[in-house]
Amino acid sequence: VTVVDDARPVELADALPLSSERARKFAELHESIMLMPASLPRTAAGAIVAARAGAPASPPARARRPQRESDPEIALSSSHSAVRESLCAQVERTHANAMASDCPPCALLRTVNPNRVSANYTDPDQLAAVSDFWAQSSGQLEHFLLSRAVTASIGGASDMLVFVSHAWPSPDGFAGAAGLPLTYAQAKASELGNAVSDLRRTRADGAGGCQNVRLWIDKACVAQEPAAMRNVYLSYIQEFILLSDEMIALLPWTYFERIWCMFEWACFLAAKQPRYLHVACEFMLTHDSAPMYVRAIRDLSVEHAHCTVAADRLILVAMINSSFRSVAAFELFAKVTAVALLARTTAKQAGRSGVDEFAQTWVELAVELKQPRLAAALRAAECARWRAQSLVHASSWLPESTFRKTPTTAAAAAVPNALCLPGGGSTDSVGEGGCPGPSDARPRVVELWQRRSWRDAYLICVDRWFTGEIEPLLLEIKKRCVLPAERRPLAALELPDGAHSPTPAHFAEHSAQTLSPSPRRKSYASRFRRATPLTLALAGVDVS
């Protein structure tokens, strides 16, 4: 019989189908348990109950036999040890093969399927399954099993490699400041799921296409044990960032208090366009937490940033000095880009409310950072007007039942002209058949004819505002803070827009200062030609 808390036996007797005699015995047993000292062991408790009932005490329990190797708990422990030994052997083989290859970073590159680490917050089963991965603030060797080595066979024209940057420990006071009753682990899994879903929809290669998104996450793609192997993986962090197409930053308000997060943020933006960095903080950036974000950006400092391993700070500072004009330039670049990208995120959130006050916080911070042009560009956002126009135009879009891989003549006639779309007005964005054409290398509007949601139309307006008004200012600041390509190490080579991964040819052209855009890569195989000092020396390129 199990008695829960201090439930009264009379209530239990009334609720259970017990006879009066069994109810009386149950009440006596309950009273005996409630009066029993908590320190008494189970054997003593049984003796007391038996004595009160007038029955002889049960004989003392026999000593437990020694455990055997066939016992389930011993077998489970042995199995766990065997898995760890096998995993350690796999890590050592991977490391040895990578060091013997022409391109160690490419050989060490691993990816994770988003379904194994992300979930929709409306799916409690999947959310519970993936939250365990994010709940632990320290690395586990077993997480390495979630990732797979990148090979040419899994690459393709629709593949996208996304670098995921995140802060491991949960911020203090997260439960009260978060927008939903989610734990930090659940919020990270949900944020990542939303960001991946948006990428799949907005970064399609062709009509009706779908991106096969693969994630690089340090918790799963870096062998956490032994420490020497972990350090080898982390030494190639810049290479992993350069090999990525885009980046998702899971951004709590403590993100910019950690030097590793700051470095990943600035390193990606030093080599890629700002539009390819996606801030995921929908459940974290709320009215209550916004002041904490502002304070974290205002106080951003390499000197005072938290670093779990003291030796990592010296390595990261050296990497910063190799790519930026100074540590102060690095801090300014990180602050300004943080303001701009968080403003884009809050602009997307503002579509739900239909007001324009979202920008005031970031306008004030931009003025404080002595960036008046950025503040003016933030004031230019018209979220309320974009939302109203999106609601009007969404009803004229094609329903889901008419989706095609390529638009038919009838479908093309039903597509609204780009000039009348919210945020439109440029003939450069109109393609064949009246379909909106790409305005940049990877536009959100390339598949506009397929969309029917006002939310999608609103996001198009936000992206056009960001790429037209904000991004040019960030590129100017980037030129002032980031070292020119010819003065930076090859690991931090800045590629032209449209070139997603450096190759030996890129480095040879870089040495001659004749960089030219390369076509969009067709598979990960091209990334295996990634230049290293060894391959460059073999190719006759001066790496000094």
UniProtKB/TrEMBL annotation:
Region (Disordered): 51-76, 495-522
Name the record gives this protein: Heterokaryon incompatibility domain-containing protein
The organism of origin for this protein: Diacronema lutheri
